[in-house]
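Dear Dr. H.,

I hope your travels went smoothly. While you were away I took the liberty of generating a structure for the chain from your last submission, since the lab meeting agenda had it listed for discussion. I wanted you to have the full record in hand beforehand rather than looking at slides cold. The sequence, exactly as received, is reproduced here:
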Amino acid sequence: MKTSAKRVALLMGLVLLLNANLVGTPTDVQATANVTVTVDNIMEWAGDFTDITIATHITAKSSAPVGSGTATLYTNGDVHITADITTAAQLKLGSDPNQILLTSYKLTDDGDGTNTTGGTDQGSYTLHGSFLLSSPYAITHVAGDGADIITLWAQAENPSGEVADAGDYSAIQTLTASWGNP
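The corresponding predicted structure, in token form, is as follows:
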């Protein structure tokens, strides 16, 4: 009987040991979830350009002061920029269409179109009536860089062969971004 009691005690110990492993804390289990989202083509200005105030006054016939403003263009594709070439983009004194300054523009940006989203900076100013008309400003998107800081430069000069009337001149230049490079 001693052997039987030992066997029963040993068997009960094994059962309790097995039960303890079965009833104890379960092992971790995992489940996965696939998450998907689609990003559409995005092209938008963060806001209007900062105001361009040409701080240097025109003080002589040959004066040609410049000023600049910036705006951020968000894009995840290639775009091009065109400009308003109407008289709205020409500096004028009040509402008198005869009191004008020669108004020229150029664009630069913070990218190069190779390593960062951007284009080729314009080196020369172009009169408002032909600014970006035959050659829009091309911006090439580079993966991982979806923002391009555009700088619009403005230059004011006296009309050819005369000096403008004294006063504060103003203009509104509107730039339009469109898909693709021309």
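Two observations you may find useful: DSSP finds one helix and ten strands in the chain. Residues 53 and 59 are 16 Å apart (CA to CA).

With kind regards,
E. W.
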